[in-house]
Write a structure and sequence with these properties.
With 155 residues, the chain is α/β, with parallel strands linked by helices. It has helices at residues 11-18, 21-31, 52-61, 76-81, 111-115, 124-133, and strands at 2-5, 36-40, 68-71, 85-86, 88-92, 98-102, 148-149. It contains six helices and seven strands, in the order E-H-H-E-H-E-H-E-E-E-H-H-E. The longest helix has 11 residues, at 21-31.
Length: 155
Amino acid sequence: MILEWTNHECPYVVRHYKEDNMQKVQRIAKAEGYVWLSVISSAPGEQGYVSADKANELTISRNAANDYVLLDESGALGMQYGAKTTPHMYMIDAEGILRFKGGIDDIGGGAKFFRASLTDAVNYIAMNDTPVSKNQKPDIQESVPYGCSVKYNYD
């Protein structure tokens, strides 16, 4: 299973989807047999919060290849996993073992992200999909997540 924390208003997420990068990785992962969950942990009234209808609309308009969108308004799932940014990625094998967590690629945040080529980046999800699908430890198990902060409700 792959968990992708997302926020459609985050410029990092926008770029990954606008350039078909996230969708490409979703298709690669699905070909390996993964279930892909896009998780929205933005609290009501915060940037990135969406209704179920809006989440479905975004999935269609972006040609996303995810299997499901999970609305986590309370932030309980995001906090349990320690999701800090959008995007923030997690790979879980068939035995339920967390095999990878972190940023989707080796670019990193800041201005560098907006100058870098997504095509030339080392994409950790695409790179790790085969070993994790075989319940094996990938070469890279963690990377620094980058992007916008998850907009949790801390009240």
